[in-house]
Amino acid sequence: STILYNDSFLRREQGKVDMEDRGYQFGDGIYEALRVYNGKMFLLDLHMKRLNRSARELRLSLPYDTNHLAENLDRLIRENQIDYGYVYFQITRGAIARKHRFPEQKIDCVLTGSVEAASKDEDLHADGIKVSLLDDIRWLRCDIKTLNLLGNVLANQEAFEQGSDDAILHRDGVVTEGTTCNAFIVKDGVLITHPADHFILNGITRIFVLELAERLGIPVEERTYTTEELRNADEAFITSTGVRVTPVIRIDDQSVGDGKPGLITLRLLRAFNLDVEQFIAE
Ligand code: PLP
Question: What is the set of domains in the chain, with CATH numbers?
Fold first, then answer.
């Protein structure tokens, strides 16, 4: 397959990273993952906006502007003949002798990108999933999409070992988000999700689902909620680029609501899928 390396297109085997790359040593870098439908990147502008924000927050200067990046990613999709799948790319602060503080001289960022094929509806779990409720042990800047994902990795592994599909995390009883997704509940017809502050990543799918809710006239509260509220919710679901809207029907050994995907969840899921169908047809 072909990969993107800075501004070049290389064969996968040629994509080598320096051992002193700061992404490799410190996780000093940022990334984005997008969905490709019918050869086109879904919600591209929102992803690029978030990339610019992540870069700004880490004082990282991108190697080139996001229009040029989008052109390169388009070419990557075409060269690999991807109709349905994913684009992943990351940008690190570059390679230099290991020191925590930023390099004194200017060094070049390292950008790498790849694509992966997926079937059109892969990862749709409309029947619902089981999650584990686990401690959120991550740092306090979860709003930045950085390569540092150890807190997410450990919780995701623990959930897997508990027989769950993912974990929903909480800080001292306040639900934040999933290890790879945002978390929503529905109570008495109101959609509730953690506000987009430094405790969560403001998911592009989260933004899109909040827009859908407004369009459908579903009342929304962006506020913190407790693990108690999660356990007593009428409905729960997670959102991400990978899983779109996925109902949560079990939390540890307890079912959510009546143990079936909720009505508002399914309304949002259908509206989401219709928008994707429209995007595909455009
Ligand atoms: N929260 C975390 C911690 C994530 O890793 C992700 C996606 O990878 C999300 C939320 C969802 O973000 P998006 O909808 O942009 O995929």
Answer: 2-117 (3.30.470.10), 129-281 (3.20.10.10)
Residue 204 Cβ < 6 Å to ligand 1:
yes
Nearest CA to ligand 1 atom 9: 181
Distance CA 229, CA 260 (A): 18
Which ligand 1 atom minimizes the distance to the CA of 205?
A: 14
Write the burial class of residue 172 (CB in 10 Å: 0-12 exposed, 13-18 middle, 19+ buried): exposed
Q: Quote ipTM for the complex.
A: 0.99
**0.80 exceeded by pTM:** yes
Q: CA distances (Å), 204 to each of 47, 64, 108, 212, in order? A: 7, 22, 28, 12
Please indicate whether residue 21, judged by its CB atom, sits closer than 6 Å to ligand 1. no
Catalytic residue among 16, 40, 145, 260: 145
Query: In terms of Cα–Cα distance, which of 83, 88, 85 is closest to 39?
Result: 83
- Dist. CA 67–CA 177, nearest whole Å: 30
pLDDT tens, residue by residue, 175-224: 999 999 999 999 999 999 999 999 999 999 999 999 999 999 999 999 99
Q: Is 145 considered catalytic here?
A: yes
3-state secondary structure of 223: coil
